[in-house]
Specification:
Length: about 100
């Protein structure tokens, strides 16, 4: 069972329909928003969007004997950063019972 996706273009269209603000303006604002979130994460800052959730970078510990899933070859993996998202209380509450 495939879950439907929501694309950036669909978000822009939905905002346009609700606000009638120029699509180019909406596109620029959405792009700038994502750029600011990415920049903050690259600078190792936590991005907190109240009512939605929090994005942050965590360090994933490296391993000496990780395996390449395609070839089965043993490869070393260094410590590295991963982006994580924690939903806010409201989002968590509203999505809790969506799937069993």
């Amino acid at each position: 069972m495939s879950t439907p996706k929501l694309t950036k273009a669909e978000i822009i269209e939905a905002i346009f329909e609700k606000t009638q603000v120029n699509r180019k303006t909406i596109h620029a604002v959405v792009d700038q928003f994502f750029d600011e979130v990415k920049l903050a994460l690259i600078e190792d800052r936590v991005v907190e969007l109240r009512g939605f959730g929090t994005f942050e970078i965590r360090t994933r510990k490296g391993r000496e004997k990780a395996r390449n899933p395609k070839t089965g070859e043993v490869v070393p993996v260094q410590n590295h950063g991963v982006t994580v998202f924690r939903p806010g209380k409201d989002l968590k509450k509203k999505t809790w019972e969506l799937r069993e």
